[in-house]
Amino acid sequence: MGGQAGFGPVPAGEDGGVPFAADWEAHVYALAKMLRRRGVVNDDELRDAIERLPPQQYLAASYYERWLGALELLVAEKGLI
Amino acid sequence: MSYQPGSRVRVRAGDPDHHTRVPRYVRGHTGEVVAVLGHWTLPDDSARGITPPRTEACYAVRFSAAELWGSGDHTVTVDLWESYLDRP
Amino acid sequence: MTGHDDHEAQPAAARARRLEEQLITAGLTSDDEIDEFLTGLSGASPVNGARMAARAWTDPRYRDLLLDDGNAAAAELGFGPFSYQLRVIANDEDVHNVIVCTLCSCYPVSLLGPSPGWYKSFAYRSRTVREPRAVLAEFGVTLPDTTQISVWDSTSEARYMVLPQRPAGTGGLAAGDLTALVSRNGLIGTALV
Question: For the whole model, what pTM was predicted?
Answer without folding.
Answer: 0.89
